[in-house]
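Thread: Modeling a multi-component assembly for a lab meeting

Hi all, long-time lurker, first post. My supervisor asked me to bring a structural picture of a complex we are working on to next week's group meeting, and I have zero experience with this. I have the sequence lines for every component (488 residues in total). Could someone generate the structure of the whole assembly? Inputs are pasted exactly as I received them:
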Amino acid sequence: MNGLTEISLWQLAFGLVFVLAAGAASLARGLGLGRDLFFGTVRTFIQLFLLGYVLVFIFRSGQLAYVAAFYCMMIFFAVRIIRGRVKEKDVHFALPVFFTMFLSYIVVSATVTGVIVGATPWWRPEAFLPLAGMVVGNSMNALAITLERLFSDLRSRRDEVEMMLCLGATDREASKEIVSSAVRAGMIPSINSMMGVGVVFIPGMASGQILAGADPVMAVRYQIVVMLMLVGSTALGSFLTAHFIARRCFGKGMRLAFKGR
Amino acid sequence: MADSLLRVSGLSWTPPDGAGVHGGLRDVGFSADGGEFLLIAGPSGGGKTTLLRLLAGLEERSGGEIFLDGKETSALYPPVLRRTMALLPQTPTVTDDTILNNLLLPFSFKANADLRRPDDETLRALLAEFLLDGMDLQANARILSTGQRQRLCLIRSLVLEPRILLMDEPVSALDPESRSAVEEAAQRLCLSRGACVIFVSHAGFAPTLVSPRRLVLKDGTLREETA
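Re: Modeling a multi-component assembly
Sure thing. I ran the full set together rather than chain by chain. Output:
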């Protein structure tokens, strides 16, 4: 099967028609989206071109240090986005989340590249970075949902948690149900996407490979691996994060660290 | 001289910024022994609830010492401290489970594994004592009225056989029948089991079975009223 022809810069520029149409609609209806659309488009171009050049550089160098640095950078920005979404002031969670993401995603990504894809070495940039990028990007939302649920439930169900503490529960026992519920909440979008994949939508990776001329059956195999990898990384990331951060919500002496009542 | 069951000295607490809690506690000190009934009164916002939460280790103190049987409470394993010095908050909280499972909830925690789970007969006697006999133990505890919930919570604390019971305005939202059941039970706990009861009461409560020590907590300082 032949792949699609290369997209020239002129053809790429033609894609701006869609944004211009959206901008015109915004102007006509007074939606006030013009500025955001403009900067969003500029950032898309700059960030993705930059990504392309950086990836070319890393692929050519084949250095583990560059792969590690790029992986850490992806997680750093994911944590920044999570921190912006989860409005929690009393419990510092950014650094622990960084480490749980780093650990859980490297376990899953390395297993896929090293065992399933068979890349040698397992961190080979062409295999590891795209897969790790998908893991970080998809799991980021799951972790944000998990953390939001964890903090909001620990606050709203504070009486129940403290009641259990007063009856001799440890912090882990008192928050067990809330932690489970937070992990479940984070996992639901991944499980839902497994239900709808191939029926409701053709996922990005398979679409990309098919457009690039790959055999759809092979593209689907890759996509299945990716789906399973995403569920695994989301589960592991949500589980570790919820458990670890829940412990931090209780200060010394197994008392809730939230200020005020 | 033997240590008191509970000794508090120089206890202070500063509210965190922006926490919406006014005042604080300054240099609070008192001691209490088993079989004593301490009645703490004082205006709203005076720090009564905070004092009980500090004793139970639910708030972090800014300074001072709290000794239980001569041991600094910060050195005790929190679950053991809290089952020894049980706090009954103003708002009774039950889980979304049956009445029976709510009563036996403390026995699902590891730290209480050494405690004897009450048999059915003991539970029935306790339920009757607190006017909850005839209840369907398999019914969800959330269908109970506030008064019934408060009595259930009191039974749940009592099955842990605490040596000190901290009661934070436990009758303020109760009907007269529940109110007298809880007030009487608190006094009987003192008389028959030799426990120390620290009873915080906003409204006037005059114990009839015990002669209480009366303390007033106002503007963050505690003073004992002499008869």
